[in-house]
Design brief:
Elements lengths: L1 H30 L3 H13 L1 H12 L3 H26 L2 E2 L2 H21 L4 E2 L1 H24 L1 H9 L14 H33 L3 H13 L1 H12 L3 H26 L5 E2 L2 H23 L3 E2 L1 H22 L5 H25 L7
Antiparallel strand pairs: 1-4, 2-3
Helix pairs in contact: 1-2, 1-8, 1-10, 2-11, 3-4, 3-11, 4-9, 4-10, 4-11, 4-12, 4-13, 5-11, 5-12, 6-11, 8-9, 10-11, 12-14
Length: about 350
């Protein structure tokens, strides 16, 4: 039964992602707004709704470790797995706005979460700050897109399949119906996937934090995965990257902000394991995006493959640590003494290769 639930949820996610990308891209052209802005707002926030629902539900159910682990794990999964897989489908062009504005905002949100969590909890004041920043960020994006409406339409109309007059997707109600239907399918599919995945994980006897960081994080990130890969296949590469970056920002500011507000006076506890390791990994992954995005303004296939390998290494470490595996010490030694230093050197070299013109 759990296997059927898992496969059914996955199929629903694929259908939902196709509807969402189709509706959002047509709506972007109809309004003269770039797919990047739509990806950063409508698509990113919509596909992050499972994370929001799971995190708030976990807080109300007293499972605060799952709430935090879900968001932190989702952000790590978004960058390493989703961008990795999408880049393997086709090299992803990185819009200049992402380099100048959106990635720095994502990095800033990650650093802010790290600082707020240093005392071991996210209180109501922290939640209000995060939620308030999300509202300001969203309002700024909408204001910015309105100022650049005509320029955005001219820039992207040639690169997107324009809906011919009289086409069934040219009507605004149809576009909105596609978006709403896609979001509903994504949420339903994600819920089924997570329900089945948690059952599998519980059988392994791992902690709530690890379940949140891995199974639930990957499950609730399936909408982002399906949406970004579908957007990449359809040639909507701005939406593929913008969806991931926007989702990461929404996860920190929105999901944890609302969850902290919902936690009341008790606050949202930050486990020591997450504070000492996982939050730093999430921040490091966000920081790594900048030099990779700047170089050539493209995520190449080999960079996507490296992202995926790092995600496999991260999950392997979590599983071995949870089971106190004998190979953990050797694995950690290789990562700390060889892989991570090599990665830092590579990122520095990429950054020193120079910014592209106009960056």
């Amino acid at each position: 039964m759990n296997l059927i639930l898992f496969l059914g949820g996955l199929a629903t996610l694929v259908v939902g992602a196709d509807l969402l990308v189709r509706g959002a891209s047509r709506l972007a052209l109809s309004l003269g707004i770039s797919p990047l802005v739509v990806g950063l707002t409508v698509v990113a926030f919509g596909t992050s709704s499972p994370e929001l629902a799971v995190s708030v539900g976990a807080v109300l159910g007293g499972k605060t470790d799952i709430a935090l682990g879900n968001v932190v794990g989702s952000n790590i999964f978004n960058v390493l797995s989703i961008l990795g897989l999408s880049a393997l489908v086709t090299p992803l062009t990185v819009n200049l706005q992402l380099i100048r504005q959106e990635v720095p905002i994502m990095i800033g949100a990650s650093l802010l979460l790290l600082l707020l969590g240093l005392d071991g909890r996210l209180g109501v004041v922290d939640g209000a700050l995060l939620t308030g920043l999300l509202l300001v960020y969203t309002g700024f994006l909408i204001h910015q897109s309105r100022r650049q409406t005509q320029a955005a339409h001219d820039q992207y109309a040639a690169g997107i399949q324009v809906v011919r007059a009289g086409g069934w997707t040219a009507r605004l109600p149809v576009q909105l119906a596609l978006i709403v239907g896609g979001l509903v399918a994504l949420v339903l599919g994600s819920d089924a996937l997570v329900t089945a995945s948690v059952t599998f994980a519980k059988a392994l006897g791992v902690s709530d934090l690890v379940i949140g960081l891995t199974i639930i994080a990957a499950g609730t990130s399936m909408p982002e995965l399906a949406t970004s890969v579908a957007a990449s296949i359809k040639g909507e590469r701005d939406m593929a990257v913008g969806n991931v970056v926007g989702s990461c920002t929404f996860n920190v500011l929105g999901c944890l902000g609302v969850s902290a507000l919902a936690s009341g006076s008790a606050g949202l506890l930050v486990p020591a394991a997450a504070l000492h390791f996982d939050l730093w990994v999430m921040t490091g992954v966000a920081l790594a995006c900048l030099p990779i995005f700047i170089t050539g303004r493209e995520i190449a296939r080999w960079e996507g493959a490296v992202f995926l390998l790092y995600y496999v290494a991260y999950v392997s470490y979590l599983v071995m640590a949870a089971q106190h595996h004998a190979a953990l010490r050797a694995f950690s030694g290789v990562m700390m003494s060889f892989v991570l230093p090599l990665t830092v050197i590579t990122l520095v070299v990429l950054l020193l290769r120079g910014r592209p013109a106009g960056a």
